[in-house]
Structures are given as structure tokens and as C-alpha cells.
Amino acid sequence: MGIEVEKKAGFDTESAKEVVKELRASFVAGKTKTYEWRRTQLTAMLKMMDENEPQIVAALTDDLSKPELESSIYEIAMLKNSCKLALKEMKHWMMPKKAKTSLTSFPSSAEIVSDPLGVVLIISAWNYPFLLSLDPVVGAIAAGNAIVLKPSEISPSTASLLAKLVKKYLDCSCIKVVEGAVPETTALLEQKWDKIMYTGNGRIARIVMAAAAKHLTPVVLELGGKSPVIVDSGINLQVATRRIIAGKWGCNNGQACISPDYIITTKDYALELVDSFKCELERFYGKNPLESKDLSRIVNSNHFARLLKLLDEDKVSSKIVYGGERDETNLKIAPTILLDVPQDSLIMNEEIFGPLLPIIMIDKVEDSFDLINYSGAKPLAAYLFTNNKKLKEKFVEKVSAGGLVVNDTTVHLAEPSLPFGGVGESGMGAYHGKFSFDTFSHKKAVLYRSFAGDAAVRYPPYTAGKLRLMRALLGGSIMGIIRALLGWSKP
Amino acid sequence: MASEGEKKAVFDAESVVKELRASFAAGTTKSYEWRSTQLNAMLKMMEENEPLIIAALRDDLSKPELESSIYEIAMVKSSCRMALKKMKQWMMPEKAKTSLITFPSSAEIVPEPLGVVLVISAWNYPFLLSLDPVVGAIAAGNAVVLKPSEISPATSSLLARLAADYLDHSCIKVIEGAVPETAALLEQKWDKILYTGNGRIARTVMAAAAKHLTPVVLELGGKCPVIVDSDINLQVATRRIIAGKWGCNNGQACVSPDYIITPKNYAQKLIDSLKCELERFYGKNPLESKDLSRIVNSSHFARLSKLLDEDKVSSKIIHGGERDKANLKIAPTILLDVPQDSLIMTEEIFGPLLPIILVDKVEDSFDVINSSGTRPLAAYLFTNDKKLKKKFIATVSAGGLVVNDTTVHLAEPTLPFGGVGDSGTGAYHGKFSFDTFSHKKAVLCRGFAGDAFVRYPPYSRGKIRLLKALFDGSFLGIIRALIGWSNSKS
């Protein structure tokens, strides 16, 4: 333990430089570019998960008291699927894509070639510390890059397990885990990377992008926001309620970037909804949810204090209609529902990221779109429960968010055919599936010409005739070209 | 003039953005009709004002009419026409497959406008580089502010006038100005910024964007190398190099060939060919040729003179070198075997000077290019050797590559145009323009049927087994898990 601390204290700008230097040398030597290398790494990652699932689950229990099912499915199984998909499709993704060429460069052929960017930095988050660390790494490997992964220090067991496992299973001349906190992250951010992917909050994201700007490093920022759920009437209320609960408390106890943050429903429907919540919450977590094994705890005392501050604000504490119990020693807060909190309360002005669910009421359900857009910040996800086709269409048309789901919450994350990322305050760029491969690639345009068919019209001395002909050529019309050749087009 | 200066001094960037945001929020820019109207108006604008545009470009750059007409105006027209033709298709949501995990469900990816975007243009192709991005922004349904370069003032003020006359100025605005105005604009919150120019300013733009988490496209430059192999059609190759260099705004283009790399024993042949074709194109007194742009201003003239006059370099001039300071003209100049650590080999030339670097064998050129440490916007290779072509594509990283020509990839809208590393981030042209100004919103739709109870607490071993099988996508696994569930009841 003492030696570990020394090692960590030692990681400074010089160490960061050395790491990047080593990785660049590996990249330049071509190690990461071969299909075989990428395949070997991804296969090793699968093996790593197969052989260490209990340890991974234990680390997540340590860091978050995450229930085994959530660790096993929403972290490990998700990552396995990423690896498997990449292994299956990678050859296809790596192939150049033919591009049509026009009369302008005839005769010619063209293609778009996917090149690895080079040496990339992935900065992960604490709430899904395993998935959010390795899922981007899968994409970076598939695209042929060398990688530094910086896991979050707020989930230290997972961070140090990742360091250990990566070293054991993956090629450490090309893939490294750097543990640490602010000093180490700062040292890393001073270096020149070919891409940085950051998952976390908007404040740090600004710092990451500002650091990237110094080197013109492109970034992917996976952030968050207040993901709203609009609940219409005339729906299967039980299923809707269960799906909301699953997305909120069933996802790391609300500490997930796409967890339903708050609900908007009509005044007429609110009480029915609240009753349904009370019923299903008890069915899921029992009468004493503070003792349920199926809820993650609050990650640490900072966040615990933060959430209490949201709950205990004067204008808000009286609005609790369910829950509100807390256990500071064990960092637990019971599933809590609030009804009709003021728009200017703290709880409605920051991302909650915890087990508190405010319900906002409006007159008619269509008013919810303005409410969502009014906040000015676009969330990472937005949800709507309805059977009304027109309302669905309006929702998709009017609500801007990273992604939308109708009649469920959070599940779009699991579909690799959908780009996962934010817009505006919720982030930039996207990944998952082929989008991961693309985001860690440079799409290089390649045009091939031969020496035949040299268009003399390009060359000086420029004349009116050449001008006419070139216009016709760029216009792409064969007739235009013939006319110009015959001197019949406008001067 | 005094009132213009006052106007600029009181330029209120905040209210410009506020007005555009209101227009965007009102939905003005989102309809297909609006986008179509704007693009048609832009076409009309060019048709009715071509002589004025050419005159402004002549004013700013002494740009030859053919270059203005074709490489600026015709290119923008092409962009408009393509967007008009394809926009409906581009705007359509794209169906996405869903898996067993969310069955039953349907999904699509919906492109939506980002909102209010800022396009900062450059001085060398001031018409094209201003309006081409604007075409993409409009096609994608955004409100736009265009900030043209003050270094090409005639084009800048013509753009301001024409945009006000032809386009919807409640949604599309041209803001003229220099550093103060640009700084004021960069303080605002934009939904995207597309900047064309140099790396130094790009860093400033990206740092400003970082404050608001604004995504950026940076179209920069670099030293675009041309590798010339032996055993090629030397005349055609030479002409294409000249066309890409001096035929593109006299070398002041981001994709212009910057320098040549060729084997020692081919160099003389190449030089002779260049001299021959240069004379054929520009005559014996190229300083007087009407077919060459001038150097844009005295700053750049001084910069280029400095490159030429460096001690270790001035002796390497083997063709050209003549200058006319009064008229800001430098003749097409070729240098042979300049040192790698000279200024001319360290910065992007952006002018009519062409150094030739010699290597022993042509394969060595890849190391020369990669050892520079920065990746250029374009790289070119002239060869008939198939293996060399393959190695070039595999080894050289640049925004784009062309084999057996220079610069023409710019004109193919099916190819993404953008840099990598120091030459930039993001790309545009064709559908890539539409995409770069859009947010691709994932949409997943489910019904209330088929609710997988296995998701819900209380969690159990059986549920874990079943979910694992579900995620695995294996029906057999699911059946086994279901059977195991009913067997073990745990």
C-alpha cells in the first residue's frame, strides 16, 4: 500500500510525457494497426471478464454497493457485447468505403479509408466505472489506437482492479491505465493526444476541452443533464411506472447520466401516478428500502451531502410525498418522490444524480415540451410515456436531447445501432457500436487518377473558351460540355 | 466611413445571437421550404452578381477570372444544387436495427439542426469558404452568422450586402470586422463553430468554444507534400502540380502543394519539366502574367520574402525568385535541396515558392513526411507503381490523399473534406456539410406489451441468468435460463 502511494505521488508531467512517448513509439511502429493485434486485445478483454467476474462485481460492490445484477448485466454483459460486436464487425468496419466520383475528376476512383487517430486518452466516470472505462477502450482498440485510460478515483477499487487486469491481459506497450486524481489528470491533459474522450460533468468537461484546444485535440464529451420523463394519461400505468423505476432507482440508484431526473405530468393524472409509484416501489424494494440489497448506495459523503441539500431546501422539503429517509452512516437515501417543487428550487436547477424524483405538474401534456426546452440546456435523454401517436410525433420533433425513448427509459443505451451521445450541455460526439470505431478513426479521403484524360482547360493561359468549358464541366451536364466545346454556350 | 467605424465599435454580438435564437426557436429555419428558399436565393444571388463577385475577388487578391468563376462561384453553385437535390433525403430519419434486448421496439436516427451556428471564413477563397459552410448550415436548418475575413475586405462587404439583399436576415447574418468583432462573437454561446484558417487562431477559437461546450470544425492547413516518382507521364504530372500550386490563388490555398519530394536521380528531369511548363503557362515574365493571383497583402509579402531571403535558402533558388513589391507579386519560384531546418521547410509556405527535397529512393519520402510530426491537410503522390500507391495510402496520414493529381479531391462532394491533427478536426462538403451542422438524435420507440419482468427488483439469481442470456442474444441460452429458473427457483 505504501509503495502504491509512492507510485501515485510520482506521476507528474514528466511521467505523463514518458507514457505518451512510449505509446507514440508503439503506434509509429505499427503495433496497433494490424487486424491481428486488435483482435487479440478484444479477445483478451473477453477472457479477462470471463475469468474475473466475481472480482469485478466485488469491486463495484466496494465502490458503489452496486447490486450484483446491475454489475453483472449493466456493466459486464454490456461490455462483453461491445467486444463481441467489434470482433464480429471489425473487418468490415476497417474496409475502405468506395465513394462515387463525378465528371469533374473523370476518370477517377475514390474511397474513404479509416485510419487510427494515434494515441488517445479516455477519462472515465465513477458511476459505471467498469463500463465507462472499457467501452470506449473497445472502440479505440477496434480503430487501431494506442490508449491511456484514466479511471475515476471516486471509484478506487474498480480503478485499481482495472489497472491490475489491463496489465495482466492487454498489451501494456500500447494500452495503459493511469490511476490518480486531479494532479495526475492535469499532467495527462497537458500532453498532446490525438483524441480525448471524457465522461463526466460539464465543469470538468470545459477544463478538458480547454486543455485539448492547446493541441487542437478533438474531443468527445459524454456529459449529463436533467433527463425529463413526460407521462401522459391513457397508458399502461403499471408498466410505465416499473420502467421509470428501473431507469431511475434500478440504475445505480439514480446515479446515471440517463436516469430519469424528473417527471412532468398533468395535474389530473399526478395522483394516480404517485399512487402507482408508491405501489411499485414497495413491490420492488419492500417497506424498508434503506435495507434493500437491490439499491446502490450514494457513492460518497460529498454526494450524500449534496443530495441532502437538495432535499432539505425550505421550499422543497415540504413537497416530499414518498420516502425521504436517510442513513448517513451507510450513505443511503430511500427512493424519494416530491410533488410540485418550485421551478427555481435547487433540485430543479442541477442534475440530481440520485434517488430523488420530483414531479412537475402542468395543465395539458403538450405544455411539457415548452417546459423542457425552457431550461435552455439540452439533456442527454428525454422520455415520453404515451399511446397518443400525435404526441409522440410532436415529442420527437420538438424535444432536443442526446437521445429519446418512447414508452421506456434508458434502454436505448443497449442498442449499438444507435449513436450514444449528447448535444449542447449534454455533450458532443457519440459512441457505441460502429460509432465507437468511427469516433476513434480519421476518415481519410483518397482520390485516384491516372495520367490519361488530362483536361487542358484547367491550365493557363486562361481564356474565355476555357472558362466556358470549365463551367460546363463543373455543371456536370454532358450537353453543356458539348455546347461549350462547339462554342455555343454563354460567354 | 466614420459612421461605419462607430457601428463596428458598438457591435453588439449578444443581441445578434439573441435575435437568431428567437428566429430559431420560432421554427423559422426548420422547414424544408425555408431551407429550399434560401438555397435558391443563393443561386439567384450568384447568377445575378457574378461580375461583381469576380470584381471583388480581383480587388482583394487579383484573382484571375477563371479561378474566381470556377473555383469559387461554380463550386458554391454546385454545393447549393446538390443540397437542393438531396436535402429531402438527408433530412429523413434513418431507420436503425434493434436487438433482442429491447424487443419489441423500433428505432431511428433523426437529424435535427444544432441551432445557431457561427462560420468564420478565410481570406484566400473568401467567397467559397464563406458560403460553402453556410450552404451546409442552411441545409441542416440552422440560423447562421457568417464572419468573413477582413483581409479580403471587398469580398467581405459584398457578401454582407448580397446576404442582406437575397437571404433571410432574421436568420442569416453577415458580421464584418476584425479582431474585436471576432472576439465579441466568440464570447457568445453558439451551437457550433466552423473556422477556416490557421492553427494559432484555431486554438483561440477552440478555447473560446470550450467555455460554452460548443463543438467545432477547424479547417486548417499544413505543409502538403507532393511525392514524385520516376517513370510517370512527367508532363501531365508537372502540369497538375503547377495547376494545384500556382493555379490555386498562386499557392495561397490550404491544399496547395507545399513542397516536393523526389529521388535524387529524377530531380533534374522534374525541374526541367517544371521550368518548361511554367513558361508555357505564365510566359517569360510571370510577374506580368494576368493568370496569377498577387500576394494578398504586404504582411504576407514580407513573410514570403523572409522565407526566400534566409541565408541557407536564398542560394538554393533555381528558378524564379523575382519580386515586385509595389504590386505585391512574387514570380513562381523553385528551390532545390533546402535544409530541413530552414524556415521555408518549417512553416506552411502559402505562396508561390516550391522547395524540392531530394531522397535516395522514393520510399524514403514517407519517413520525410511523417518525421515532420504534423499531419497535413493533403498529400499527393505521382506514380505508376501500384505497390508504392498502396504504401502511400497505408503510411501517410493527412486530411486527404490524391494519387496522380493535386487538389481535385476538393471538388468531389462524396469525399469528406477536413484535416487531422494540426490540419484540423471535422469535415464538410456534400452530405458531410449537412451532417456536421446536425445533431443525430437517437430515437427508440417501444410499446407497453412485452414487459420483461426480469429487469425489475427484487433481483435474483434466476433473473441474472435470464438477463445474461438475453444480452447474449442466444435463444437457446434464454430457454435454458427459463428452464433453470423454473427448476431452481432461486
Automatic annotation (TrEMBL), chain A:
Entry superkingdom: Eukaryota
Domain Aldehyde dehydrogenase, residue spans: 12-446
Keywords: Oxidoreductase
PROSITE patterns: ALDEHYDE_DEHYDR_GLU
InterPro entries: Ald_DH/histidinol_DH, Ald_DH_C, Ald_DH_CS_GLU, Ald_DH_N, Aldehyde_DH_dom, Aldehyde_DH_NAD(P)
Active site: E222
Sequence similarity: Belongs to the aldehyde dehydrogenase family.
Protein name: Aldehyde dehydrogenase
Species name: Hibiscus sabdariffa
UniProtKB/TrEMBL annotation, chain B:
Pfam families: Aldedh
Naturally occurring in which organism (per UniProt): Hibiscus sabdariffa
InterPro entries on file: Ald_DH/histidinol_DH (IPR016161), Ald_DH_C (IPR016163), Ald_DH_N (IPR016162), Aldehyde_DH_dom (IPR015590), Aldehyde_DH_NAD(P) (IPR012394)
Keyword set, alphabetical order: Oxidoreductase
Aldehyde dehydrogenase domain ranges (all copies): 12-443
Annotated protein name in UniProt: Aldehyde dehydrogenase
UniProt record similarity statement: Belongs to the aldehyde dehydrogenase family.
Domain of life the protein comes from: Eukaryota
